[in-house]
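TEACHING EXERCISE
Course module: macromolecular assemblies
Task: Read the component lines below, then compare them to the predicted structure of the full complex.
Student: A.B.
Group: 4
Components provided:
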Amino acid sequence: MERLTFTYPAREAVARRVHVGVVGSGDLEVLLEPSADSDAHVAVTTSVDGFGTVWKHVLDRFFSRFEGAAAIEINDFGATPGVVLLRLEQAAEALRA
Amino acid sequence: MSSTPEGERFLARRSFIELNARERARALLDPGTFRELAGPFDRLKSPWLPLQGVVAQADDGVVIARGSIDGESAVVASIEGAYQGGSVGEVSGAKLAGALELALRDCERGRAVRPVLLLETGGVRLQEANLGLAAIAEVHAAIVALRRHVPVVAVVAGMVGCFGGMSLAAALCSHLIVTRQARLGMNGPEVIEQEAGLAELDAADRALIWALMGGEQRQATGFADVLVEDDSDAIAAQVRRAFAAPAPAPRSEQVEGLIARLAGIDGERPPEPAALRALWGRGT
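Instructor-supplied answer key:
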């Protein structure tokens, strides 16, 4: 198990909280809520060690389009990068809905 | 695409099994009344799993939802089978027991609350051992106390099934609803194979496993009340029907009948599933 944290600049406030996903095999849960400051913060807990670089690439891509000042907690149970990105997009979509 | 009536009916179905624990609870409550207690943002996580290198889920795999069922106040406790096999740990067990105990307190004060348990669980979470077992005992006690006031309705939909100490919880409920995909048993097939050997049970033989402990067999032999299709609306309708009808005497109080059933079985030559259904069945 490994814990990773990331910070990204943000442009707009996040208005509410969103929860998607499940900590099941090959899946993850995302808890997204307003950040305490003007940046976006991501705290990842993952069952698979040694993939910090891959996490950074996936999150870089997500935050190239997402500009909310969100505090995001990710609890991961071996999701592939594609599933991680889909869950993040699902959370962003739920935020807009 | 099928255009037969059967095909149309199949396509119109909304699977309950494919829903997660939160969506299942929402599907059973009256529309717009779902309100979650001790939800993921309260972060009541297992303190024990991370110490053992296991990632914890923010709600510890149990969703407690208040709302109404047919306009009457209700509480739904829904276990997430995809997280740690729906296992009951210290926190998830406290959420289950706490929800039932609060419903009991309301009932004792004359405010009826309709309790529904959505059981998708392998039983106790082995990483939390005694703490999980203690919580399951509290769940049992709360069900027995609560069912004197109001029917306690449980649903085992699948695909995890309901095993271990939580199968006892299912058996204690006033009314048990199952699907064909459900399984209900004290020990799961893998445990039986490991402990008693391949000659006793081949855990890879899915047809045999469902014939032994599947929802259809359990309903046919009187261990579940209703067999229902994997359809959200059908399951919601059966839950409503269970509360509308007067609850029969709890299965767990029919001790003499159950002992008489066992007396009719030769342990040296246990019956095949079909023979058991003929012996114990409801004329099916």
